[in-house]
Predict the 3D structure of the following.
Amino acid sequence: MASPQRGLRILPAEAALAPVLAPLHARCFDRPWDETAIARLLALPGAFGLLACGGADFQTPAGFVLGRVAGGEGEILTLCVDPAWRRAGVARALVRGAMKHAGRANAATLFLEVALSNLAAQALYGHLGFETVGRRPDYYRESDGRRDTALILRADIVPAPPDRYDARN
């Protein structure tokens, strides 16, 4: 599916892409997930991934989101954007894609956790309709030993209209 952002395409990310996703995750987090963890997650029932690719040939990984859907709820487990692609609409496109995917999988809500200190991410999520519904004190452990509170955010998912060429129209 093509994204409205110039030069960006959002594609499904399957377990076979773990060798591409793990180095990208490592560029974004102090405690990255390795290939095995990513591949195992994507192999679970209800799990999904979306990869944003950009550049002239749409071959440059710009970011990805991993999530899951179960029991009518979706959850974003991790979202990362390569530092070179930040502030270019990649995270917004990925979260919107995750919301759309979760809605098509019959989720009515989408949850995620974000560090209390991550004000940029909180602003993004707020613009996308997420609201704080809880806190997890000392949830994130930083590489320097500090701990950060996680905010639990929730958004209602508006069901996606059928595709224009859907036979049910």
